[in-house]
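Problem: given the chain below (313 residues), write out its structure.
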Amino acid sequence: MNLSRLSQGNRSASNPTSLVWIIVAGLAIIVGGILIATLTPILLPPQASAESQQIDNLFRFMLAIGGSVFLLVQGMLVYSIVRFRARENERADGPPIHGNATLELVWTLIPTIIVALIAIYAFVVYTDITSVKPNEQQVGAVGARYAWTFNYTFSRADLPVDLDFTTLPENIQADLTDADGTVRFSHPQLHTWVGQPVDVAMNATDVNHAFWIPAMRVKQDLLVGRTTNVRFTPIEAGVYRVVCAELCGAGHGNMAGTIAPDGTLQGAWLVVHPDRETFLSEFFNEQVSRIINPPDDPVLLGRQILDSGAYPC
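Solution.
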């Protein structure tokens, strides 16, 4: 009985009606995979960097393949359960089928090609998003339990135009610049502007951390004793959360930025200004002014130093 059913199934699989159903099922699997790839990324944070677009496209490509494979496997499973289920009063074993060399070749060759395509695509994306961009903004990041500190370096030409550097007290000049004439200061937030490539050089002072900005689609480990880099180019102005994605101790959650009841930003955030002029006027010039005009009250001065993020503990 089983052999006759199997032969009937083989004959039915070769008739025109079965061929049409196979084509329809194949199209449904492909369309379903595309729908999964299209709809799932809606749940992700907004694409706020050029890199996020490339990474999401790679993600969609993988989702389309994975979704199609999922639908194929589940569809074959449902079909097999319905088509080859045991009939009423049927107690015999199924036919002893011992494999099909052509089928085994196909299901080995196709996954090999798919994995190779994904590997090549992923390598191209990785190479592009990690490559050095022209005119990068150099920012240093220090991860420590349990805070982030961002160190900024600029040339003296970036100082406010109305500032006469030579008139400043020597100690303030020393605080502002190094021997090579660069301007340096620290801040607990990462500030940049739209269209500006950013290169963040990162170091950990105690244990390993992981620098993650979900909206930028960038994440990179910070390893003790080693400098690691992450690069991105913002395309959307706004405020984006910076997160530590490596469990680093009891205060691990404190390394993500928070918002105070009055609406001010606390802790680590990425602030993307609309343009360079806004960045200079709303952030850079203000930070330089705080250094140039320190408060006379030592308590206020100490609070200002702590707010700068220079001592994250």
